[in-house]
Design a protein that fits this description.
The structure is a homodimer of 379-residue chains. By secondary structure, chain A is an alpha+beta fold. Chain A contains twelve helices and 17 strands. In chain A, the strands form three sheets. In chain A, strands 9, 10, 11, 12, 13, 14, 15, 16 and 17 form a nine-stranded antiparallel β-sheet that branches. The first copy, chain A, has a four-stranded parallel β-sheet with strand order 3-2-1-4. In chain A, helix 1 crosses helix 10. Chains A, B: Belongs to the PurK/PurT family.
C-alpha cells in the first residue's frame, strides 16, 4: 500500500515535499551529496558520490521526481531506462537550456522578450545592434538565482560581457524588459491530464534573491486567466506530471514569460497554509498517481523568506497568525534558511506585521517596501 | 539553536507532534516499545525495554512531554529528578486516577455526575442505593476507550460488575448521565501562563471509539464560555504547560465534566487544517517555551476517523477539499489508522461528502447519522 518516491536533491523543497507526503503514507528518499541536508530528517539520503549510488537510488523507490532543476540529464537517462520520472525528461531538458525553453515558448505562442542566440562575440554585437541597449546576456545553461547573467548598458560592455560569459559558449541575449512587476504562476498536472492552477503570486526580489511573495498578486484577475492559459499550454505540450512554475513579467505589452521551473517553487510556499492543497502535496499526489487537491486560496497570503541568518523564533511566532518554516540549514550569507507565512486579516494588519518583521529579520531584504494585499480579489 | 523534545510514547499523537515540530527546527525523539511505531519516521525511537533505556531517553532531549496518558509515574519520577516534563507530573497523576480527577473537579467547582468511590462490594451496593440505576462502574486507573467500565442496569448486575472490575480495587461508581451530546474542549497554556482555547468539538462515538468530531459544536456559543472557564481553572490550578483536553456532557443540568486528558486529543485533529495553529503545534510551542499561536478557526470543520481498515486513498482524495492523515499503522479491528478532515463550504456539501465517505470507508462507524455544521457560529 505504501509508496516510496525517490527525489533528486534533498534541500528544503524535498523536505517540504516529504512533509506533505508522510500523512498520505508516502515515504520519500533523496539522492543528494550532503547526508545532513534539510530533507534528511524525513527520509533516507543516498549519498550521490559513491560509485554505485545511482543504481542504489534507482532501486530504492517506486516512482521518481526532483526538487533540483539542474538534475544531470545523464542520471535521468539512466533512471528512465527502468523507472518513471515525473516531471518528464523533456521538461527538465527544456528548462535547463534557455534556448530550448524560448523555442518552446515561441512554439506555443507564449510571448517572451525579443532575444537572440549568441555563440560568438560577433553574435553579441549583432544582438546589440538589433535589440538595442540595455541588453541581458545569459548562459543558456546553469544559471540560477541571478548567476550567469550580465547586463550590458553600453556598447563598451560587449567585450567584458563576452569575457565573463563567453566560455559558456551557449548564450542568449535578451532585450531588456521594462516591467512593472514580476509574477509567477504555479500549476499542477495529474497523470490523467487533470490541471489545476494556484492564484498568481507577485514576487519581490532583493539582489536577485526572492524576498517575499504576495498572493493573490494585486489587480491580477485578468492576468490570472492569461497566465493560466500559458502554463496549461506548457503542461499539456510537455505531457507534464507534477508541479510547474512559470515566471512572468508585467509589461506595457502584456505578460511576458521569463522562465519556467519544472518543480515546486519558492513563490509557492505560501500555499502550505494559504491554499486548500499546497504545491507540495499536489506535486506528491500527481507523482503518486492520486487525484489532485483544490488549489483554491484559503485567504490572501504573504510569504517572506528568511535569508542568511535566523531570526529569533519566539519573536516571529509572537506575530498574530504567523507560520514559521525553518529548513534546518546552517547560516550563510544569501542562503535560504526558512520562510514565514502571514495570513493577515486586512491591509492594515499586514502593514503592521511587515514592519515588525523588517525589524525581527536580520536580513529584511525588500521588506521595507510598501506591501498591500487584496482580500476577495481571487476566488 | 535547535531543541529536542523527548516524548513518552510514539503513536500517531507523537507522529503529528513531530510533524508540527520540524518546521520550527525542533526535533522529537520517542520512548516507546515498538521501534516501528507511527512516530518512527520523524525521529529516533528509544526502545523502552532495554535496562538503561530510560536513562538514555532522559539524556536524549532538552525538555520532555508525552502523548500517552498512562505514562508510568515511576518513569516520570526518575525523569523529573534532572529534567523538565510538560505537562507537570501532578496533571498526569490526576488524569490517571478517576478518584483524584473527580476530587480536583470538585475542588474547582467543575460539575460532574454524582459519584461514589467503591473499594468493596458493599460500597457498590451503597452506591446503587444512593445514586440509583443505571450506574456506571469504572476502574479508577487504567481505563481507556471504553475499557474498564461496566454499566449496571439492575440490582442483579452488582455481583457481575464486582466480579468483572473488583480486582482493580479502586473503583468509582457514577450516576448514569442522561446527556444529549458529548463535547470536548481543548486548550493550551504556555510557560508564561498564556491561555488559549479552541472551539468546542461535538464528538460522535461508535462502540466507545470516536467516529467523528464536528467543530464548532452546533449551538455552542454559550457552552463555549462555560467550557473555557472550566478548562482554564484546571490549567491554572495545575500550573499546566501544553495542551489539555476536557470531555464534557451536555445535560439538562448543564455541562458536566466527564474526564480530562493531559495531552493532545483525537477530537482536536481537526485543528491541523481547521484552526490557524493546530493543537500539535501549540503543544510543541508551549513545551519549547515559544509564544502560542492563534486557536481561531479557519472554517467549520469535520474530522472523521479511519478505524480498522484503510480506505482507498485515491477515493478519499477525490473528495473536494478532503485532507488525509494516515498513521503508518498495520490494519487491526478497532485500531485508529488515520483521519480525514473536511472543511465543507456549507451543510449541503458536508452532507454529500459524508454520504460518500460512508461508502468509501470500510468501517463508517457513526457516519451514517445526520451531520450538520454551523458556519459563522464561533469566531
Amino acid at each position: 500500500m505504501n509508496k516510496t518516491i525517490g527525489i533528486f536533491g534533498g534541500g528544503q523543497l524535498g523536505r517540504m515535499m516529504a512533509q506533505a507526503a508522510l500523512p498520505l503514507n508516502i515515504q520519500c528518499c533523496f539522492y543528494e551529496a550532503d547526508t545532513h541536508c534539510p530533507a534528511a530528517q524525513l527520509g533516507a539520503v543516498i549519498a550521490n558520490q559513491a560509485p554505485d549510488a545511482l543504481q542504489q537510488f534507482i532501486a530504492s523507490a517506486d516512482v521518481f521526481s526532483l526538487e533540483f532543476e539542474n538534475t544531470p540529464l545523464a542520471d535521468v537517462d539512466q533512471l528512465i531506462q527502468t523507472q518513471t520520472l515525473y516531471p518528464p525528461r523533456q521538461a527538465l531538458a527544456t528548462a535547463q537550456n534557455r534556448l530550448l525553453e524560448k523555442a518552446l515558448f515561441d512554439e506555443l505562442a507564449i510571448p517572451v522578450a525579443p532575444y537572440r542566440a549568441v555563440h560568438c562575440e560577433a553574435d553579441l554585437e549583432q544582438a546589440v545592434a538589433e535589440l538595442g541597449l540595455p541588453l541581458v546576456l545569459k548562459t543558456a545553461t546553469g544559471g540560477y538565482d541571478g548567476k550567469g547573467q550580465f547586463v550590458l548598458r553600453e556598447r563598451a560592455d560587449i567585450q567584458a560581457a563576452w569575457q565573463a560569459l563567453g566560455p559558456a559558449q551557449h548564450l542568449v541575449a535578451e532585450a531588456f524588459v521594462d516591467f512593472s512587476r514580476e509574477l509567477s504562476i504555479i500549476a499542477v498536472r495529474g497523470q490523467d491530464g487533470e490541471l489545476k492552477t494556484w492564484p498568481l503570486a507577485e514576487n519581490h526580489h532583493h539582489h536577485g534573491i526572492l524576498s517575499h511573495s504576495i498572493v493573490p498578486a494585486p489587480d491580477s484577475a485578468e492576468l490570472q486567466l492569461v497566465a493560466q492559459d500559458y502554463i496549461c499550454r506548457l503542461l499539456d505540450r510537455l505531457d507534464y506530471v507534477g508541479v510547474l512554475t512559470l515566471e512572468l513579467f508585467v509589461t506595457e505589452q502584456g505578460l511576458l514569460a521569463n522562465e519556467m521551473a519544472p518543480r515546486v517553487h519558492n513563490s509557492g510556499h505560501w500555499s502550505i497554509e494559504g491554499a486548500i492543497c499546497s504545491q507540495f502535496e499536489n506535486h506528491i499526489r500527481a507523482v503518486a498517481g492520486l487525484p489532485l487537491g483544490s488549489t483554491a486560496m484559503v485567504a490572501p497570503t504573504v510569504m517572506v523568506n528568511i535569508i542568511g541568518q535566523y531570526p529569533d523564533s519566539a519573536q516571529v511566532l509572537a506575530l498574530d497568525g504567523a507560520h514559521l518554516h525553518l529548513y534546518n540549514k546552517t547560516e550563510r550569507a544569501g542562503r535560504k534558511l526558512g520562510h514565514i507565512t502571514l495570513l493577515p486579516k486586512d491591509s492594515a494588519q499586514l502593514s503592521t506585521l511587515c514592519q515588525k518583521l523588517a525589524i525581527i529579520l536580520p536580513e529584511p531584504l525588500a521588506l521595507h517596501a510598501e506591501i498591500d494585499i487584496q482580500h476577495g480579489a481571487v476566488e
